[in-house]
Amino acid sequence: MPLHVGVIVFVLLSGYFSMKPTSKKLIKLLSIFVVYAMPETIYTLVHSDNTMKAVHSLFILSYTHFWFIKTYLFLFLVSPMLNYYWDNSSKAQRVYMTAVLGFVAVYMATTHGDTSMLNGKNLVNFMFLYYVGRLIWQYKDKWLNIGYAPLIAGYILLNAALVLIYLYGGTMIGKSVWALSFPYSSPILLLNSLLVFFIVGKMHFQSRIVNYLAASSLAIYLIHGCRPYVIGMIGQASLYLYHEIASPYLLTAACALLALVIISACIAIDKMLTPVWNYSNTIGNRIYTKLGF
């Protein structure tokens, strides 16, 4: 629960720096997704005994369990309209539009009034988070003046309370805490993500190594979530550790080590595919030159 902030922070960053969609960037995003989703498509075609499911696997963007890529692509495509409204509206209008999107994304999801809004894995919630990111940029002089101590204390206390209530509050209360703090439409999760954003955003840190490794973060998500790898390798390794290691502390350490191995392998695969990404950039540049956007 304390670390369940990655998706929210990613979209907040997209809003904070403002997306600048071009055909070149679209080609790059699609090429990365198609290449890394291909093993799963082939796996489904080979192993599925359901003809319709096999056909669906060919529609990589429509029938993918990588919901984040699909939703983020939608956000990428509509971001020019979001940017246009933002650039041509007053501060009050920006706050109002963010509040409207937040009402739809959060209220409809948390009250289960619209099943399509559940869990926040939808475009409306991403548009809301994108505008929250823009507001963070607009009012950065405010939160940059907040000290580290209250931000860190707030993060620790919030998450300690969530975990303790979940573990010791009883089944009904625990489920309620989970339902209100874990989905991507949760205002509690948004608060948690904002605290992380503000803490890290105040830091002055530069590293070429970190930038080099972080460039493969999308690859890590796509590779380690691909079903053939999950079923054939990652899942088997996790089950082996779970059954062979009795101590919860040693099991946690072993899982952390396994995670580092998986991350390192994903980064290595992504770097080996650099010629493919360079070629997609070449195609993107040609299309960008011809289309002009």
Brief synopsis:
The protein is mostly helical and 293 residues long.
What's the tally of helices? Answer: 15
Task: Please report which band the strand proportion falls in: under 5%, 5-15%, 15-25%, 25-35%, 35-45% or over 45%.
Answer: under 5%
Largest sheet: none
State the domain count. 2
Rounded radius of gyration (Å): 21 Å
Based on secondary structure, the structural category is mainly alpha
Order of helices and strands: HHHHHHHHHHHHHHH
Distance between the termini: 41 Å
Mean pLDDT: 90
Please report the total strand number as a whole number: 0
Give the proportion of residues in helices.
Answer: over 70%
Based on Cα principal axes, name the global outline.
Answer: globular
Describe this structure in words.
By secondary structure, this protein is mostly helical. The chain has 2 domains: 200 residues, no CATH class; 67 residues, no CATH class. Helices cover 77% and strands 0% of the residues. The longest helix is centred in the N-terminal third of the chain and has 25 residues. The two termini are 41 Å apart.
